[in-house]
Specification:
With 236 residues, the chain is an alpha/beta fold. 33% of the residues lie in helices and 19% in strands. It is built from 5 helices and 8 strands; from the N terminus they run αβββαβαβαβαββ.
Length: 236
Amino acid sequence: MRSANPSSPVPDRHSRSRARRRAVAVVGALALAATAATACVGMASAATASGRHRPPRLKPVTTNRYQALPEQSFLIPTRAGKVAFRLVRPNVPAGTRVPVILTYTPYSVLGGSAADGLADTYVPKGYARAVADVVGTGDSGGCWDYGGIRERNSAYDLVEWLGTRDWSNGKVAMIGGSYDGTTANEAAVANPPHLAMIVPEVAISHWYGYAYFGGIRLKRGQAGPPTACSRRGRSR
């Protein structure tokens, strides 16, 4: 039986509901705090454990072991004309065969030496470095063929020449940016057996969109290297 004492009022239904909600909120907050504390302890334990079992740093597979030989210049035949290129090889023991890093470029007027930054990095590690002038540009013969079959065929022939020398291990990689990377894409499409990998950087992957507009071939000499020539152009 409830007390009739007016100094001890009986809580109404709404007051009891508010009290229950406050109690639930307090319990929830305490549970969340306990979970967070447990997580922090777990993270600290994991960090401590990872510090104890941190794997060793990776060591380079190759090291600088060789001096570079003097740069050599070549002019080799291809199906599209003779291609000029420069080559820097490592001074390795007799009978040692090495891979080749090739760039096939129309920009030799900007500096086409094979004794470049890539050579500085990789020749001491046992790689040969080659820089070739795209057919019809620089010191190469033939006719410049902007993204055409002659450019592709000459890239194939160049890779195969480099991959079959007695000093080569048969693995040729191509690297370059922009047009220099696009020639690597072209060579890969031709699929020469000695092309081991390509590293094209910001290169064209769809030549048709660059060489044709509305189905019409870009006028020769309108863009690209200034040594473009007609189908009856120079040859060596």
